[in-house]
Design goal:
Elements: H1 2-10, E1 15-18, E2 23-26, H2 28-68, E3 77-80, H3 82-87, H4 89-97, E4 102-105, H5 107-116, H6 121-135, E5 141-143, H7 162-181, E6 188-192, H8 195-199, H9 201-209, E7 213-216, H10 217-230
Parallel strand pairs: 3-4, 3-6, 4-5, 6-7
Antiparallel strand pairs: 1-2
Domain PIN: 76-199
Pfam families: PIN_4
Protein name: Protein SMG5
Length: 231
């Protein structure tokens, strides 16, 4: 039996036979090979992850260059007002699902939804959709954080109407993200569902003073389709 074990060990590079302990053990060379294989696998994994990260960075850069070169460039960040979210929720959902933009819901808009939820089934459904998307961590939709605001100075009476005050809060949200995404025109756009807002010289002048671009959501959707067809 002992002789047989020794013969097996002598003819096998994977095992050695210990005569005293009377058992087979794996050769040190095999252990070293396994350790080397694990190190190589780990190094290969790190290399692949690095390549994926680099590819992602390149894709993001190409996207920004592609759209910044167009006369009517698409914004990176879209801020929406209450009218856009309530009256054009389907368009908002399409913008989020397109994964081309970061859609920001200002805190004042969420407060307005909360005030109207008892009066409208559509508002309640919109709130549920928002809650679900935010809980799921949709990276293309976010609610305004507490500190995500950049104050703006307005010339006028110290006491503002509720409409102007709410609009000011939205502009301050836009102003913050304009600083986050850069000062280039079109990087941050406020989408509204209100014709009255676009026809208000006072409100439009407020937006112009802080260089915030405002578009009606239906107009923006049309422009998006045009760009898509050309692309």
């Amino acid at each position: 039996m002992l002789q047989c074990a020794e013969e097996i060990a002598s003819n096998n590079v994977l095992f050695t036979y210990d005569k005293i302990k009377k058992w087979f053990s794996i050769c040190d060379t095999l252990k070293q090979t396994d350790e080397k294989s694990l190190k190589d696998a780990k190094r290969d994994k790190q290399h692949v992850m690095g390549q994926l990260w680099l590819r992602s960075e390149v894709d993001n850069l190409e996207y920004k260059i592609k759209y910044s070169s167009r006369k009517k460039s698409l914004p990176t960040c879209i801020v929406i007002d209450t009218d856009a979210l309530i009256n054009y929720s389907l368009i908002i959902k399409k913008l989020v699902n397109s994964t081309k933009f970061i859609v920001v819901v200002p805190a004042i808009v969420i407060s307005a939804l909360d005030e109207q939820k008892k009066l409208s089934k559509e508002v309640r459904l919109t709130i549920r959709w928002l809650e679900f998307q935010l809980q799921e961590g949709n990276c293309n939709l976010k609610s305004q954080g507490i500190h995500e605001t950049l104050p703006i100075k307005l010339d006028g009476p110290p006491k503002l109407s509720k409409e102007i005050c709410n609009f000011k809060h939205i502009l301050e949200c836009c102003n913050y993200f304009k600083g986050e995404y850069g000062e280039n025109t079109g990087i941050v756009t406020l989408l509204t569902g209100s014709d009255d807002l676009l026809e208000s010289s006072e409100l439009m002048e407020m937006a112009k003073s802080v260089k915030i671009n405002i578009e009606h959501i239906k107009t923006f959707q049309f422009q998006l389709k045009t760009v898509k067809n050309k692309g």
